Amino acid sequence: MLERIHLTILREVERRGSLTAAADSLHLTQSALSHAIRKLEQGLGVEVWTRDGRSLRPTPAGLYLLDLARRLLPQFEHAERLMAQVAEGQRGTLRIGMECHPCYQWLLKVVAPYLAAWPDVDVDVKQRFQFGGIKALEEWEIDVLVTPDPLHKAGLRFVPVFDYEQVLVVGSSHRLAGREYVDPSDLLDEVLITYPVDIDRLDIYKAFFLPAGCAPRQRKTIETTDILLQMVASGRGVAALPRWLVQEYAARMPVLPVRLGPAGIPKQIFLGTREDDARIDYLDAFIRLAASIGDNP
Q: What pTM did the predictor assign?
């Protein structure tokens, strides 16, 4: 009979690369681990591994079980964490993944009143520049995904929380400051400063440069919004950010927004969740609060 421990062993062998390393990780002897898998194979009537030299290679049946392990084990682990928190008197932990990197300041405006309203819920934020948001949501690594680019898939739902415009950011003494809008050709000789993400995830490339078949002279990457805008203010380059964020910073540093193209680049921020979590009250409360604050990010 297939049990959770079998899936755990299969996943750990894949992660660690060998039976020995997997056994150490699971605090089992190698013989106990091997015996468990042999018993599973006998019960199912199929092999899950084949030997490839000193390595183990999953069979088609093993690959199916590995995929099952990737989908089911995170759900077990998440449920156990929630139950442990409930047992300790906590409501739970809301794990938020950020794909909208400049939206961190907006998120702070949501988190502060949320924590006050839900004192028995903790909040954890994952803000990684190579963050695979949809995958993390599907694999139960996060509970909410903040993203400007929803991917509508079975089992997931996305709620729009506010609209914004992506604009060019220039220093107040830049040659393009004061322009109503810029065309792609206006930026051919510029240094574009962006967050360290792939070009195909940057709106200024997807919606502005690539349709025009051109690109800026150079691209530099910076992780933090504050340093990025300091570079722009000092004339070291230009950037593309939400208008609301630029306007906030313009009150304390010499930067200005300029529209990208005559029609601009309109965007929306969405909160993605799993449909299975629709009845979690503190998750629903976070989405409703975010939507109410989103009218004035």
A: 0.69
Task: Decide: residue 262, CB within 10 A, 0-12 exposed, 13-18 middle, 19+ buried.
Answer: exposed
- By residue count, the chain amounts to 297
Q: Which domains does the chain have, with CATH numbers?
A: 4-72 (1.10.10.10), 87-162+269-294 (3.40.190.10), 163-267 (3.40.190.10)
Residue 297: pLDDT over 60: no
- Report the C-alpha gap between 256 and 292 in whole angstroms: 27
pLDDT confidence of residue 90: 56
Identify any residues that bridge with 194 across adjacent strands, giving them in sequence order.
Answer: 221
| CA distance linking residue 283 with residue 273, whole number of Å | 9
Distance CA 240, CA 242 (A): 7
- Name residues whose C-beta falls within 8 Å of residue 61's C-beta, 6 or more positions apart in sequence: 44, 46, 47, 48
